[in-house]
Amino acid sequence: MAIVPIAACSGDPSQEGEEQDATASFSGTPNEDIGQFFMVDHFGIVADGYGDVHEMIRKKNLGAVILWNPTEASAETARKMVLSYATTSHKSEHAELFVAADQEERGTQRFKSRHGFTDLVDAAALGRAVARQGDARVCELHARITSREMAATGLNMTLGTVSDVYSGDSGTRGMFRSRSIGPDSNVVASCIRAMTNAYGSEGHVVFITKHFPGLGNASGNTDVDLTVHTFSNTKEKLELELAPYRSATASVNSHGTWPYFGAMVSHASYKILDSTESPATLSRVIVEDLVRGSASTELHLGGVDQNHQEVTFKGMDLKGLTVSDAFWTWGATRSLSVIEKRRLMARSFLAGMDILMIAKADFAGAWDYFQTIYANQLPAAEQAALVNAAHERDWATLQVKFKARVAESSERVRAAKTTVGSPADYVQEGEPRASSTDLVAEYHRLTQ
Questions:
Q1: What is the CATH number of the domain that holds 416?
Q2: Which of 2, 261, 331, 433 places its Cα 20 to 30 Å from the Cα of 229?
Q3: Tens-digit pLDDT profile for residues 397-432
């Protein structure tokens, strides 16, 4: 199978509206869960929220937004916006939004001191502190500060800190030199494990670490390179990249805090896991078999190493959410028609993804496409195209699998949202950093 061109999450999504296509539109009673499987871009912060987002919540049960550029908006403005969306959800009898942000570390921290938050250090500083001190207390503090301050504003999902293990000879060394906790897999794993425990004990914020199975040893930056694959072509190398995920997953499972934890899946390919070299976001072998597989069983996933020998891996036993890297920066979508783009999203969902991060302009069409699959209203020609693209036996088999996936993902999303609770119950007045004043002095001391 040919490698699909890919990119990754950091660039701005297109704000252009969707072009028309010949696919029949959905009619009838919609499946209420389908809107929950999408996270759309949200530019800017306004107290009343945006009318189109309110409409998406009311009519299509939109599940999540990711805040990209808070500009100079205060935490109070952000808090009012989150609560305005929550009010619309309640009136519509829909689940409240996941309101996510890349609140991971200095370089990718969306809400900073000018918004009323504590400024965080970069991930490399955390790694140096862990190595110097011999424990991951600094990572625990980093997560507790982030969790408390986001919750105070009503933000309930953070995308990062990354679990990527830095490799100096990879194509991503510039990207992850400071963004990664470091080159030592044990240090990264201990830090991420401490973070998962902190988020779980603080409550109200879901920690989505990334970019599973790992981009620290990738051939290039998926934001700019159209084809990216991992250089980890032996079991030993890839296990170093998987270690932070394994450690964190085992920890939250043992503590019963798995609804507060999940993983963002990359668009890179991993031949050692999936010999077809499908991007991870399209690979059932990776997103379903490896991610959800038993942690005590060696799985024959079909991947091959540098010598073309089959390699087995134990499962991750992840019970929490999977979130895709952004579709709008994915090279596979750049030259696709609207219908081809929707087909790609359906393939990713069928592979096992719970939440797809897409451009807001693509939401209505994607929702419509998913509904027509569920209701068996997809035109025959498009049924055949999707069956072929998804490598399924026939349409009936695909639809059965799609309905099963809707049930599985909706259960996980519901469990996370129920555990997180309503922002109206935990938001706080005043600056968010007031909620973490008892932690900041120690955090600054440990990161000096």
A1: 3.20.20.300
A2: 261
A3: 999 999 999 999 999 999 999 999 999 999 999 999
Cα(157)–Cα(179) distance, rounded to whole angstroms?
A: 19
117 within some domain = yes
45 is in which domain, residue-wise? 34-446
Residue 5 lies in a domain: no
The pLDDT, as a whole number, for residue 171 is: 81
Residue at 2 is within a domain:
no
Number of separate helices (H) and strands (E) present in the chain: 14, 10
Cis peptide before 437 (omega within 30 of 0): no
Return d(Cα 98, Cα 206) in angstroms, integer.
Answer: 9
Q: Does residue 93 come out as left (phi exceeding 0), alpha (psi in the -120 to 50 range) or beta?
A: left
CA distance 38 to 66: 10
Model confidence pLDDT, tens digit, residues 59-106: 999 999 999 888 889 999 999 999 999 999 999 999 999 999 999 999
pLDDT per position as a tens digit, 366-377: 999 999 999 999
